[in-house]
Specification:
Helix content is 25%, strand content 15%. With 562 residues, it is α+β, with helices and mostly antiparallel strands. The strands form three sheets. Strands 5, 6, 7, 8, 9, 10, 11, 12, 13 and 14 form a ten-stranded antiparallel β-sheet that branches. A hairpin with a 2-residue loop joins strand 7 and strand 8. Helix 4 crosses helix 13 and helix 5 runs parallel beside helix 11. It is globular, with a radius of gyration of 27 Å.
């Protein structure tokens, strides 16, 4: 397939170099022109540097005093010590590519979004794939949810889709975000991953049980990003210019087929090639392949949502396909690798608040919380003007009220920095939807959702029906849980067995049996006495820890007793 073409007015300074093909201007990279093929080196201000590897010193030999007047040396050392920016708290490990979105089926009966207005219309996009919990240099094939962050460059602005490889989320109360995130990171005392901490969190927040069923299935160890599906998780709105709207959940299904590693395969691959997912995507695109995904919508009528037995704003639940069938409306193609990993992948910034007319937020509490957090973290990582970086900059924006700050590239000159003003003509903007589309009235309360038996229903269906139809997957699930849970302390394991028993009694018993067998296998043998070696007494050195790097986020066994 040919590369994507823009579907609106473009700015060459924003979109970078363009090529003409068949009379259509192609834009695949929002990036400046490529560097020259050859050049002498210069200082930051452009002055030539004759000997870049030399340093000014007193005495014409290696043993000498360096001089502070050596501008080239000062610049390259000072820049080196400032090259790294804060990594993302979550989704730190990732890779990226360019491609396009194409409308395959009409959807304009439920949305007025311009980029969805006609079949065949293409919109350039950038995608960042990621793991969730691991740090920037962590192995990519470990057990984890995968992030799919799409940045669509529509003629009405940038639209960000922030999707995940599991169709459900572990929380539905925004205030639990910090606890969930901390529990899947390192122990604050030891700085080590901690299985007991992980399972203790979920024991006390069991609405996440549906998420755990996906997380410990082989679905959480995909062979690469090209062979995985993703889901919007949250409920959004398709809106029309007349103010009407439908609720929508998005499903993105790979055309390469879903293929997963087993836990042993994923663990082996993490040791052999921790960059396997990045390498797979890079090599795939370098070879000229174009991985693709079909895009579907689950449409929910507002009147149906109000009385439906599942709360459509509960991110821990899915909506049954029999009641809300999938409706195909598009396809995503990838065709090019990033040209500069740091400038494009690391500096890319996504937020659910990047919306366009025809696509809107909802009262989904997790979506609302994400809307607060995402743009704020980019200001921390990249600075106030992160939106002015080429990878993030829309083709057109006019924000005279947002001025100054670090790294300001476009400050709009004499345009008034207040509104309204006698000295500037402001046009009327097209409306997203009528402002009175929803009415709310009620008392302000501190609300926290409560766990009910219904929270275990979909997890039970996943175990008794979905995994039961997939040969070997129930066995793999039990093994995956057992290997990880065996690294937790006894009193935590006991509560976890009870949690899985609420899903299915046989499941709870099988997990208990398998986990305790794993605990017994991992028990360290008695340590033989050893001699003191000079001032170093190694008698108390711990023996080799069994089961290290086994399981989710490469957690290690915590040194606690039951």
């Amino acid at each position: 397939m040919p590369s994507a073409t823009t579907n609106g007015t473009t700015n060459g300074a924003t979109n970078g170099a363009a090529s003409e093909a068949n009379g259509a201007t192609q834009h695949t990279r929002p990036y400046p022109p490529p560097p020259p093929k050859s050049s002498f080196l210069t200082t930051m201000n452009g002055a030539p540097v004759q000997r870049p590897a030399a340093s000014q010193r007193i005495g014409n030999n290696l043993r000498a005093t360096l001089l502070l007047q050596d501008i080239n040396l000062l610049e390259i050392i000072q820049h080196l010590t400032h090259e790294r920016i804060p990594e993302r708290l979550v989704h730190a490990r990732g890779t990226s590519a360019f491609g396009w979105f194409e409308v395959t089926d009409r959807i304009d009966d439920v949305t007025s979004a311009a980029f969805l207005s006609e079949v065949g219309k293409r919109t350039p996009l950038f995608v960042r794939f990621s793991t969730v919990a691991g740090e920037r240099g962590s192995a990519e094939t470990v057990r984890d949810t995968r992030g799919f962050a799409f940045k669509l460059r529509t003629e009405q602005g940038i639209l960000d889709w922030l999707f995940l490889s599991t169709p459900v989320f572990p929380i539905r109360d925004g205030a639990k975000f910090p606890s969930f995130t901390h529990a899947t990171k390192r122990n604050p005392e030891s700085g080590l991953p901690d299985h007991s901490m992980f399972w203790d969190y979920f024991n006390n927040n069991q609405e996440a049980i549906h998420f755990l069923m996906f997380l410990f299935s082989d679905r959480a160890t995909p062979i690469d990003f090209q062979h995985a599906d993703c889901f919007s998780i949250n409920t959004y709105r398709f809106t029309k210019a007349d103010g009407t709207f439908k609720y929508v959940k998005i499903h993105v299904k790979t055309n390469q087929g879903v293929h997963n590693f087993t836990f042993p395969e994923a663990t082996q691959k993490a040791g052999e090639d921790p960059d396997f997912h990045t390498r797979s995507l890079h090599n795939d695109l370098d070879a000229g392949n174009q991985p693709s995904w079909d895009v579907y919508a689950q449409i929910i009528e507002p009147e149906v949502a109000e009385h439906y037995h599942i709360n459509i704003f509960d991110a821990t639940k899915t909506l049954p396909l029999k009641d809300f069938p999938l409706r195909k409306f598009g396809k995503i193609y990838l065709d090019k690798n990033v040209r500069n990993f740091f400038a494009e992948s690391e500096q890319s910034a996504f937020s659910p608040t990047n919306i366009v007319p025809g696509w809107a937020l909802t009262p989904d509490p997790i979506l609302q919380t994400r809307s607060l957090a995402y743009a704020d973290t980019q200001r921390h990582r990249l600075g106030t003007n992160f939106i002015q970086l080429p990878i993030n900059k829309p083709d057109f924006s006019f924000t005279p009220l947002n001025r100054d700050g670090n790294a300001t590239f476009n400050n709009l000159g004499d345009v008034p920095n207040y509104y309204p003003s006698t000295f500037f003509k402001y046009d009327t903007a097209p409306q997203y939807a009528q402002p009175d589309e929803e009415h709310w009235q009620g008392t302000v309360v501190d609300f926290e959702s409560e766990l009910t038996d219904a929270d275990f229903d979909q997890a039970r269906i996943f175990w008794e029906e979905t995994l039961a139809k997939e040969p070997g997957q129930q066995h793999n699930f039990i093994s995956n849980v057992a290997v990880h849970l065996a690294q937790a302390i006894g009193r935590v394991r006991k509560v976890t067995y009870d949690m899985f028993t609420r899903v299915n009694a046989d499941l709870g018993q099988r997990i208990k049996t398998a986990t305790e067998a794993e605990v017994a296998k991992n028990a360290c043998p008695p340590k033989p006495p050893v001699k003191a070696m000079g001032a170093l007494n190694i008698a108390n050195l711990e023996g080799k820890q069994a089961g290290h790097n086994v399981g989710i986020f490469a957690h290690k066994k915590r040194n606690l007793q039951a």
